[in-house]
Predict the structure of MutS-like protein.
Amino acid sequence: MGDTNLNYLIIGLVLVIIMLVYFKYNEIQNKKDFIKKVKKQWGNIPNRNYTQDQITGIKRYFLNKSKNQFIIDDVTWNDLDMDSIFMMLNNTNSSIGEQYLYYMLRTPSFTQEELEERKKVIDYLEQNEEVRIQLQCMYGEIGRSGNYSLSDYIYNLTELGDKSNLFEYGIMGLAFLSVIFALTIPTYGVLIFVGVLIFNIVQYYRCKGAVEPYFVSIAYINRLLIGSATFIKAMPSELKEYADKVDTVRGQFKKFKKHARWIKAGKKATGSFEEIAMDYIKMFFHIDLIKFNYLLKEVKQKVTYIDELIETMGKIESCIAIASFREYLEYYSIPKLINDEQVSINADDMYHPMISNPVTNSISETSSVLLTGSNASGKSTFLKTVAINAILAQTIYMAMAKSYQSNFYRVYSSMALTDNLMSNESYYIVEIKSLKRILDAAREEPPILCFIDEVLRGTNTIERIAASAQILKSLSQKNVMCFAATHDIELTHILEKLYHNYHFEEEVKDNDILFNYELKIGRATSRNAIKLLHIIGYDKSIIEQAEEAAADFMENNSWRILK
């Protein structure tokens, strides 16, 4: 009988060893697969789909942190489709990296020192693959916090009152007693054990459900602290200041890791033997709930340190993503940004980063710019190209151009507006409010670079031209460089002493209208609206009469009354 028990024991030990070896092998293989993945992704646009909840969660860090500083406001951000630019750049593997990258894109820098420091980090990570991959593996271990907004829960922890562990200790006591009964009085003890097990599990999920989002925060902070050890070791002497900051924060959480190892949430389950066993122990003894109540007090006292950890480590991963984006681009330049009383912008062969095989354009201006041209000729795309490059120049310190120089600017736009049905506001009301926010901002420093597409398109022609001329005149003041697109050719004459005229043009060929999207000096002289009617197949009489009416107006400056 003794030999049989020994054999069972040996078999059991062998099975445990096999499982441990298997799980260790999986761990090593997973790391190898992850390294292959990050190498493959390097220099490519991330292939990731986002839900609205995920974008909202990513945005929350920016909303919580961006107090008392200039930001790219929602109107401008949406006009330029900057969410898509962020997604192009977001080659990160953790929530802290992507949240900081989003924050960076919405908070342009106005100091050369900050941008040069950012460039130093990006340059190093671009050139040192071994360090970069080591860091990427660490960020991959930290992972993402799912649809939970880590920032919200950390900043809102103070709303969760301190909780007593008295009930949880009672649960734990019941669990120990049931185990003792099961071992000493098997006949009845097993029934008691099963009853207590069911009761404890039910109570566990009831109690945990109330604090699950905060579990995610605690577990994520713990993964940050674990990852910070790798971060410190990986940081080279050139970036020692970042390692020192993280090391200082780690010193504030010496006991945290010991207690937080019981808190697991927000990360994909591995299915390991250890993980499964730990889950059942936690459900039975409520250990993680007890530890959570202890850790909650510590986190509430040290939110500032946690914020510094998120910022420092998130900043480095966002720089990894920017370095990868550099590799993707056909060419880019490091912008030259100046503090000068005279507003200016100079860019050679500038392009839009989201357009495949883009047509490049150059511009060198110290005056505001008025753009004219036919529908679909490239006016709006050019406005967005200049605006996006201006933002990227002061955020990721890159311009999609062979050279780029400008002032440090606050960037505003009023372009892709719509009726606000929720506020019961017409397009025109939305538009004039959008323009007023730019006029109000122009009273302050630093200078503004603004972009307006189709000024006051939501009203009648006479008042549109009269009001547009005065608004654009106000925006041509010393502290503003304005790029405006319009179909109202009258404005190119009214404002010719305040704005320099540029245009895009088209060519009609084989019953088709061809655009070259090349920026040209001067006002537009061609129109295509009536030509498009012909190409699409409108009745010939409609086209001929429209052409006659247009020609008559150009000659007499009045419209014929139709009969």
Observations:
- The two ends are 115 Å apart (CA to CA).
- The first strand starts at residue 336 and ends at 338.
